[in-house]
Amino acid sequence: TLRPTIAVIPGDGIGPEVVAEALKVLKTAVGEHTFEFRHYDLGADHWLATGEVLNDETLAELAEAQAIILGAVGAAPGSTTIPSGLLERGLLLRLRFAFDQDVNLRPSKMYPGVASPLSDAVLDQGLADFVVVREGTEGLYAGNGGTLRHGTANEVATEVSVNTAMGVERVVRYAFDLATRRRGHLTMVHKHNVLVNAGGLWKRIFAEVAAEYPSVTTDYLHVDAATIHLVTNPTRFDVVVTDNLFGDILTDEAAAITGGIGLAPSANINTSRTFPSMFEPVHGSAPDIAGLGIADPTAAISSMALLLDHLGAHEAASRIEAAVTADIIDRGTTKRSTTQIGDAIAALV
Ligand code: NAD
Ligand code: IPM
Ligand code: MN
Questions:
Q1: What does the UniProt keyword field contain (predicted)?
Q2: What CATH number does the domain located at 116-258 have?
């Protein structure tokens, strides 16, 4: 029988370390033989060896997978051998764009006893539990721009934010639907006081779609103020919808306040289901701790629950979620290795 194929791109730095634990837990939840895993050794080493980041043939092969699991790609920020952005744009963003992964879903949840940098006064307000719906294929990430008079004192560098009515509407609609299945509140975050064109489009479409969802309460925050509310009153958020770059920044902050970047999962969803969706931790390749065996694999593991949910295996997804929750609540301040955390969660599935 033909088993569904899952493409696995462990990538760079701690990527392979956390992906190994994610696969361990995924296989524990659904059995060794439910999926066929096909590994792709892409990333820094592959580029150094071949000069290629992702060729069209591999892209076409990935398109046939049921889903993609990604660790992380990217070199240390100061690297002199690998140009900044080469792997990020050439692999990660290429996949998000080529596979039209319009919704970048990033849940954030505080658990009882959470190790949060927030003050007790803020934590006493309750446990924050919200989802950022980040647009995944447009905005400043579109790669629209360039430089004039490169390398001269008169150089001009531009990145143009691309926002389409279709692209904004589908992600806004997704966020409203999600809010109806949660606590019924949706916050739009943008910066329409300055970005009047893109912001104007977002504002208009948000209002139009809101009219179709009378049961969802809505509000709006400029992104700078949103960063304040995240640390002073995070329980006010249920679902947040925002553009690609604002969503990138807010979700690192959201991770930091809800237990750390090592806990934050994400799903890059192709909502039309024409192409595979991709599941990855929010964090990067963490070159500063790569190879030490101390990376927290929880984010990568939680991303497997998002993967199973997307593929309709809700019961197995819930088991992973419950195992992760139990482990997080239990972990206290004990230092454990990457494999110890993976083993502990697998034992709870
Ligand atoms: P990063 O997320 O890799 O690391 C930020 C900080 O968080 C570091 O101190 C790191 O040690 C820590 N951290 C990250 N994940 C952790 C984990 N699982 N457990 C414990 N600590 C963890 O961000 P960065 O340093 O800005 O980026 C490093 C490289 O990764 C860059 O090349 C960047 O472009 C790339 N990147 C890739 C992805 C991706 O592939 N999805 C995402 C973000 C960054
Ligand atoms: C993320 C990362 C990526 C992004 C980078 C590495 C391109 O930071 O997934 O959050 O900005 O989307
Ligand atoms: Mn990011």
A1: Manganese, Metal-binding, NAD, Oxidoreductase
A2: 3.40.718.10
